[in-house]
TrEMBL record:
Record protein name field: TRAP transporter small permease protein
Subcellular location, record wording: Cell inner membrane
Keywords: Cell inner membrane, Cell membrane, Membrane, Transmembrane, Transmembrane helix, Transport
Domain annotation Tripartite ATP-independent periplasmic transporters DctQ component: ranges: 20-143
Superkingdom of origin organism: Bacteria
Any one of the GO BP annotations: C4-dicarboxylate transport
Amino acid sequence: MFARLEKITGIATSCLLFLLMLLTFVDVFGRNVLNHPLTGASEVTELMLAGIIFLMLPQVAFRQKHIVIDLIDAITSPVLRGIMNVAAALLSAAMFFLIGWQIYILGQKAIGYADATPSLHIPVGPILYLLALLAIVNGIAFLLTIPKAFEIPEPKSETEELSFTV
């Protein structure tokens, strides 16, 4: 189930990133060559970036590929590291549930005010609802990492690359 969801979000993120690249190219070309920028490009860029980030956050959380600073891991026991991993997962989940709740409230206000982007008049409320849902999914992804908290991670090489499969 999670593999299918991961594949769908990976494809959606890849498509958004490709569209963002095309949009930026057309906007820069229009601005520098034709002396006429693409109307609303900055609005669509902001929306696409929010979509890309919030679509990829659950995958990063579940795979535990987020940035980690391990200052005291070398001097702590595996049990203490597991406890710290559980505490970090619970705190991260709580923060993303809070973020989701606040974005949902913001979405309700945007719907109430019929808030839209300035140039293209894209309604903001539904987008905020989607971001709230994705923030809550990210909180759930952090909770799903708790059973793996006491696993000993494999040693990482110096040249390990970040990779996302589609």
